[in-house]
Amino acid sequence: MLGFFMYNSGTGDDVCIDKCPTYMYGNETTRTCECILTHRAHASVVCISHCPSCSTGTGCQKCDAPYFIDTLSEGVNQCVNPCRVGYYNDPNDYCERSSSLL
Q: How many domains is the chain built from?
């Protein structure tokens, strides 16, 4: 099926779609959707999604609404919603550690 790409939505099932999500590109050789930018999260490599503005090394500089920037221990920003337990979203759309945990 020319013009379609296999996409794994994270549910374990691949689906055939005509346009990859905005944080992925359609690989014309493998006919699969692949991450534009990735980061290591523990032992796995994951796509950085909901991130219209990113840079190599630091990750997301801005997130699509309603997502917030969360800086991982590796120093890479990712877009999340909601923020991790013990964090809250500040007015600048960053996840900040709750003062009760400091």
A: 2
